[in-house]
């Protein structure tokens, strides 16, 4: 199997637009969760009136204005999650210095971008318009804006990873001995596995490279469903924090004894993954190697994990097996930990089961684990991608991001969680976990290149 490395990073998060802006504010203990009643009066009827929202403002200030990233036409046809992902992809490709122009390079470059829910607002608005005015009120772009795979499609089309070989004027490099007249391209793939989507997208993309289907993949996840109906649905499922409407920055409390539920967030993150020799040949900066990817199923419940964290344990175990690493070699775990009572406890149990023992750590305090969801909320389909970026940056900078709002540990939580402050650590290997409704689990293992 070919080795896969990370050569570019991009992010749009509730802490800001851009990886450096987001990462600095994360390490400094900032939080992107706000009250959203001023966005829509209907939030007043919902027990949870908070969300982690991408800040609006000028690009130069690390904030989001769509017109600074997209043409008016692109903004009109793209779902919000796809807009965020497009910006993250632009940053990641620029960071990697990968702008393919030849047919061969474009053909060897693919996109893997998913979303958990996708364009929720478009669906809601169209249903209302149809009920009120019938067929003629349906936007002709309704279906294209609804399809989750269009996020990957838009990125592919913008950067020419979709190459039409019957248009020599646009793509002057001739195809290699082919009589095809249809479109040729690298992989164009979209995962949608609830809150595991971002991690699955990155893991699947790495396998395209490892198996020789591509040399470069732009991979990640995005989400934007800060809508009263979506928030209301999660609230009715009793998944959300509801006690912090007047103090939103304290709402997301991973591992804390007073945690009440998660906070919905929005944004996107993209990684440029590349075959190792391909990256070396062009002199690319290599952040880390993606050494392991593990997946599992709980086979237990629609929304709740097994209390012993068995599914999470199996995903991490498989990632380590593929990486050919022992539990003792794991320096940091970026936990899925969303701030739910059952979920955090189950994952905590799984991490300790995996990492403690003869081949692992001697005591729980030796296990370095933190959750960044206290700062950015839970980005659903984008969470795994954002947290993959954080894990790679932890290796790059040898620093463990903090778990903010962790003031009081409950029984059984006895690892090092970097409470409220980042910690300088030697981090050569990091695991990052993502779990989703339906009992789907994934773990990615990144390591410093050797």
Automatic annotation (TrEMBL):
GO terms for biological process: fatty acid biosynthetic process. Residues 176-187 have a biased composition (Polar residues). Gene3D superfamilies: 3.40.47.10. Residues 1-448 form the Ketosynthase family 3 (KS3) domain. GO terms for molecular function: 3-oxoacyl-[acyl-carrier-protein] synthase activity. Keywords: Acyltransferase, Fatty acid biosynthesis, Fatty acid metabolism, Lipid biosynthesis, Lipid metabolism, Phosphopantetheine, Phosphoprotein, Transferase. One of its GO terms (cellular component) is mitochondrion. Residues 170-193 are annotated as: Disordered. The active site is at residue 195. The keyword Lipid metabolism applies. Belongs to the thiolase-like superfamily. Beta-ketoacyl-ACP synthases family. This is 3-oxoacyl-[acyl-carrier-protein] synthase.
